[in-house]
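Structure ticket #2291
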Amino acid sequence: MVNDREDTVKFVLTEKDSITAWYNVVADLPFALEPPLHPQTLRPLGPDDLVPLFPSGLIDQEFSTEQFIDIPGEVMDVYRLWRPTPLFRARRLEKALQTGARIYYKYEGVSPAGSHKTNTSVAQAYYNKVDGTRRLVTETGAGQWGSALALACSMFGLECSVYMVRISYEQKPYRRFLMQTYGADVTSSPSTRTAAGRAVLARSPESHGSLGIAISEAVEDAVTHPDTKYALGSVLNHVLLHQTVIGLEALQQMRLAGEEPDFVVACCGGGSNLGGLAFPFLKPALEALRAGHPYSGPRVIAVEPSACPSLTRGVYAYDYGDTAGIAPVARMYTVGHDFVPAAIHAGGLRYHGDSPIVSALYHRGLIEARAVRQTSAFQAASLFARTEGILPAPESAHAIRTAVDLAIEARESGKAPAILFGLSGHGHFDLSAYEAYANGILQDYEPAEAEIAHALEGLPKVRGV
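Resolution: structure written out below.
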């Protein structure tokens, strides 16, 4: 009798299999996270300090040490529009690569906004609605997070304002139009609407912008308007918490495939996509470490752009989450909050730092990191599109590049590992980037050491660190 797994391409869960609780990796870390600091005093930040920015439900989650946190029914109702998402076996890609590796990908581009970002935007909009928030304000790089928050706000009857990094505002007009269709107002950042934006424009009128600058504008907007709160698409604990629905589903689906991944690969800007996929797979290994046993989990690889190499070339230090220094200060891998990355098309990966959780895991050698050049990522993405039929977002292309490299390494070594990677979104609004690649005008960028060193000079001076 033929084993169905031998030719299965899709591993699909039903709504009966829906995840009902988020996984909080903080509960299983074999070390204590260093506390975030207040941006003015540089003293440990408490829950009360976050009240101007976030609703009470999200503040509780940010400091929670519970292992699982129930997903509210109202959030589940919206999740059912696209969750559970499919897991695919990339059989055609495997054949093209002539590899013995088995390649799987978890596809989040089936969400209404086209990426994984809706997993947290819906939750954040819900908790704000419960607390009586009228308006949410945020930043966005490539536009995926802004689109997701605009959608979520429309679901819960909230107003939405988005500061979109200028280079993406210009490169990706259709993402801007999508946000506006959902009802959001979208402002190119840096802008003249905020003191933070005006300060940047005074120094550099032609600035392409950065996520750090856009965050400064959004935070300033939030704290200076009543009934307005701030929403963040990555980095913070509660954001990564919401994204674990990805990995919790993937655990079930890999069991359906009869596999345990040897590698878990995801693109990494702030860390929400990586954490969402990888943290549930790390759970048994982290629990073993807490019990004094050696690490025995999969190799988790965070993939970042060589143009903004916070993990691979940054330092592990306390740094501001934004350019103006008004957002909380966190211990993370950073290339400096003053660093302005080159205008690459993977706008969602142009952030100067990484999640404190991801950074702490990387600092202790529990996860790995690789940096990928833009043209190399698009080469792999184009191969993936021709073999698997899905056009990947430029961010996701970085994970594909590394999955392809691992499969080639397996072919050359005669090994046959199971590789799972996160396809965090589709690239339908990124065709101009694919056109630039096809026409040979896409450029690679790598910052000079002096450029990173100069940006790092602005790190806050924290006692004892």
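Closing remark: The CA atoms of residues 285 and 411 lie 28 Å apart.
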